[in-house]
Specification:
- This protein has about 650 residues and is of the alpha+beta class.
- The chain contains 20 helices and 15 strands.
Length: about 650
C-alpha cells in the first residue's frame, strides 16, 4: 500500500484547488463548519496544503521562492530541477544568493495551525479514531513545512497558534528558537502523527508510515548537524553562540536514535524492496521508479495526463533527458551523469595498470561486468530506448600510442591530439582515413560543432525515471506524467544504516546495506573500519574537515549510488558539513569514447567537462540567510545566520 497525491490546480490563490478525483469547490464558498465538520470537507482543506509541501521533484526550482514548490514557471522549474540544484547530473551549478531561497512558508503553517486550533470544536462529529487520525495528519503537514525551513535556516520561529494580525508587535514578532528546539519540535509533531494516524491507505493522503518515513529523514539530518557542525569554525558567530545555528555534539545520538526508531516503524509496514522478477536487476531497478504499484514506494506524488492542455499536472523530464535524434522530439538531453558518479559503482576498468587505455572490441563492451544498478540508473552505448539504440562516440584517433593521461583531459594542445591525429565533428560527420570512410561520432555523441548543449557530453545518459514507453512524438515539454517517489523503503534502509553506524552499531548497519546491495546486484562487502579519510576523486575528497572511517564513507557512497538523481546528494553534503570541501573548485569529469582507426578498437578516456566548468560551495551554504525582507518586518529574527 503506497501513499500518493495529485498535483492540484491552484484556484483563486492559497488553498483553492480542484482535481479530477476530488472535484473541489472554491474554499470561499464553504465555511469552517462545512470544511472541518466532516471528513470530506477536511480532505478538501488538506488538498491545497499537500500541494505546497516542500517536495523536491521534477518541477522543483530551488532558487526561486515563488516557484520553489509549485509548478508555476514550468520551463525554468522543469529545466533547473534536472540539476537538483547540486549539479549532480546537470551542467549548471545553481548557487545560493545573498537572500537564499527565501523559503518562508508561514502562510501554509498558519493554514495548518488554523485546523489544529479549531478542529476540536467538531470532535463530536467524529469517532475517536477518525479525529485522532486527522489531527495526526495535520501535525505531519506542519512538520513537513518546518523541515523545509530547518534544513535551510537552522533555528526558526516556532508558531503553534493562529496569530491575530491586529495584535501588537510584541506578540507577532516571534523570536527564533534554537536549532535544537526546532528539530525537537519537528520530532514531536511527527511522533504525534505516527502515534495517532492509522495504517490505512488513501490516494492523496499520508498515513502513519509516511509520517514515520519523514521522521526517519528529518532525524538523520538533525543528528548529522549536531555531530558535524562543530567542524565549521562558526564558534564566534552570534547565531552559533545563541544556539540558532548549530547544536551540541552530545545531542547527536538522541536524533540518530529517533531515526532508527522511525525506520523500525516503517519496516513493520506493508513495504518491501522492489524485486518483481524482471529478466535482469538493471531492468528491475529502472522499473522501481515507474511502477505505480511498487512494493517499495511509501509515498508518491502523482502527475496526470488525463486533462488535455493542463500543463500543471505534467512535467518535462523525458524531454529534458532524452537525446536527439529519435528518442526525443524536443531540444535533446540537458543532462548527463558525470564520471565522478559513475566511478562510485562497480564498473569495468577502462585504464590498464600500466596507464594505457583498455581496448574494447565494441563501444557497448563498457557495460560488461557493470553493476546492474548502474545500468538501471544510466543508459550506455548499445542500450535501447523507444525502439532506438544508443550510439555514443566522441571522435576518432587515427592511432593512440601512449598512456590515457597523454590526452591531458582532451585538450587540443596535447601532442597525441595534434596534427590531425584526433578527429572531432558533428552528428553525421564522416572522415576518410587511408581510403576508408568512418563516422566520426555516434548519433548520440558529444559533438564539437554544436556548442556542447542539448546532446551527450559523456558516455552515458540518465535512465532513472525515464519512461521508455512514450512515443517519440510525445517526448516534448509538459507531456510526461510519471510519478515522483517521495519516500521509498530503500532510502529508509539507508537512513537507518547510517544512524546505526553513528550510534556504534556497525554490524547491524551493514545488514541494511547488504539488503540494498543484494537488490542492486552489487558485491556484498563490509569495509574494514579505518580511521582515515578516503580519496576517491572529487566526490570523496581527502580534505574533509574531520576523519571519516572507511566503512562510514562506504555507507555515504552507497547513498550516492542508490539515490542518484533523487535530490539527496546536495542535502547529504550539507548535513555532513563537507560541501565546501567536496565542491571546492569541483570540476566534474566525463567518460569519452573514441575509435582507434589503425587498430579497429575503442578506448574510453577520462576527460574534463567540455568547458572545464567548476563549482564551488563556500561555508555559507550550510545555513541560508534569514530573508532580509522578513528581518525588516521582525527584528527578533536577528542575529543573522553565520557569514551573512
Amino acid at each position: 500500500m503506497k501513499k500518493t497525491f495529485l498535483t492540484y490546480i491552484t484556484l483563486l490563490g492559497g488553498l483553492l484547488f480542484s482535481c479530477q478525483d476530488l472535484n473541489l469547490e472554491p474554499k470561499g464558498i464553504l465555511g469552517e463548519p462545512e470544511l472541518f465538520g466532516n471528513e470530506y470537507g477536511v480532505k478538501k482543506y488538506f488538498a491545497g496544503i499537500y500541494n505546497y509541501l516542500p517536495i523536491e521533484d521534477f518541477l522543483y526550482y530551488g532558487t526561486n521562492s515563488d516557484n520553489a514548490y509549485r509548478p508555476n514557471n514550468y520551463w525554468e522549474a522543469g529545466k533547473f530541477s534536472q540539476g537538483n540544484m547540486s549539479g549532480e547530473f546537470f551542467n549548471t551549478w545553481v548557487g545560493v544568493d545573498n537572500d537564499g531561497f527565501a523559503y518562508w512558508p508561514y502562510d501554509r503553517i498558519r493554514d495548518v495551525n488554523t485546523f489544529i486550533e479549531n478542529f476540536p470544536t467538531y470532535r463530536d462529529n467524529y469517532t475517536d479514531a477518525d479525529f485522532n487520525k486527522l489531527m495526526g495528519e495535520a501535525h505531519f503537514l506542519r512538520a513537513f513545512f518546518y523541515f523545509g525551513l530547518a534544513k535551510r535556516y537552522g533555528g526558526i520561529p516556532i508558531i503553534k497558534e493562529v496569530q491575530n494580525p491586529l495584535a501588537g508587535a510584541e506578540t507577532l514578532n516571534v523570536s527564533r528558537s534554537t536549532e535544537y528546539d526546532t528539530w525537537k519540535f519537528i520530532y514531536e509533531d511527527l511522533k504525534y502523527a505516527v502515534d495517532n494516524m492509522t495504517e490505512s491507505s488513501e490516494s492523496g493522503r499520508a498515513n502513519k508510515y509516511v509520517a514515520a518515513a519523514l521522521l526517519s529523514r528529518t532525524m538523520l539530518y538533525a543528528g548529522s548537524i549536531a555531530k558535524y557542525s562543530q567542524y565549521l569554525g562558526f564558534e564566534s558567530e552570534a547565531a552559533t553562540q545563541s544556539g540558532l545555528a548549530g547544536m551540541d555534539p552530545a545531542q547527536a545520538n538522541e536524533f540518530f536514535q529517533y531515526c532508527v526508531d522511525a525506520g523500525k516503524v516503517v519496516e513493520a509496514g506493508p513495504y518491501s524492496l522492489y524485486t518483481r522478477g524482471y529478466p535482469d536487476k538493471a531492468t528491475n531497478f529502472a522499473n522501481l521508479f515507474l511502477d505505480p504499484a511498487s512494493s517499495e514506494s511509501i509515498f508518491i506524488k502523482d502527475y496526470d495526463m488525463t486533462s488535455p492542455g493542463n500543463n500543471r499536472l505534467r512535467h518535462s523530464y523525458d524531454a529534458l533527458m532524452s537525446p536527439q535524434p529519435d528518442m526525443s522530439s524536443f531540444v535533446g538531453a540537458e543532462s548527463y551523469p558525470p564520471l565522478d558518479f559513475m566511478e562510485l559503482y562497480e564498473m569495468p576498468a577502462y585504464t590498464n595498470p600500466d596507464g594505457t587505455p583498455v581496448r574494447f572490441d565494441s563501444r557497448g563492451d563498457i557495460r560488461n561486468g557493470m553493476e546492474p544498478r548502474m545500468r538501471g540508473t544510466m543508459y550506455f552505448d548499445g542500450d535501447e530506448l523507444r525502439g532506438k539504440t544508443f550510439s555514443i562516440q566522441k571522435g576518432i584517433y587515427q592511432s593512440y600510442n601512449g598512456l590515457a593521461a597523454d590526452a591531458q583531459g582532451g585538450s587540443n594542445g596535447a601532442p597525441i591530439n595534434s596534427g590531425g591525429n584526433r578527429i572531432l565533428g558533428g552528428r553525421g560527420w564522416t572522415t576518410e582515413i587511408n581510403g576508408a570512410t568512418y563516422n566520426i561520432t555516434g548519433a548520440h555523441g558529444h559533438f564539437d560543432d554544436q556548442g556542447g548543449e542539448n546532446n551527450g557530453w559523456g558516455a552515458a545518459f540518465v535512465r532513472k525515471y525515464i519512461n521508455p514507453d512514450m512515443a517519440t512524438s510525445d517526448v516534448r515539454e509538459y507531456r510526461s506524467d510519471q510519478h515522483w517517489v517521495v519516500f521509498r523503503l530503500g532510502e529508509i534502509y539507508l537512513n537507518t544504516a547510517e544512524a546505526l553506524y553513528e550510534l556504534g552499531n556497525r554490524d547491524e548497519a551493514f545488514d541494511y546495506i547488504e539488503k540494498i546491495r543484494d537488490r542492486a546486484g552489487a558485491q556484498l562487502v563490509r569495509p574494514a573500519i579505518d580511521v582515515t579519510t578516503t580519496n576517491r576523486g572529487t566526490i570523496n575528497n581527502a580534505n574533509y574537515p574531520y576523519a571519516v572511517e572507511k566503512s562510514l564513507q562506504f555507507i555515504r557512497d552507497e547513498r550516492a549510488r542508490e539515490l542518484y538523481g533523487e535530490n539527496h546528494w546536495w542535502w547529504d553534503l550539507r548535513r555532513w558539513r563537507t560541501a565546501d570541501q567536496v565542491l571546492n573548485q569541483f570540476r566534474h569529469r566525463v567518460l569519452s569514447c573514441y575509435y582507434v582507426a589503425d587498430e579497429g578498437k575503442y578506448i574510453y578516456l577520462d576527460e574534463d567537462n567540455r568547458y572545464n566548468r567548476s563549482w564551488t560551495a563556500s561555508k555559507q551554504c550550510y545555513y541560508e540567510p534569514i530573508p532580509w525582507g522578513e528581518i525588516g518586518k521582525n527584528g527578533n529574527l536577528l542575529p543573522q545566520n553565520p557569514l551573512y
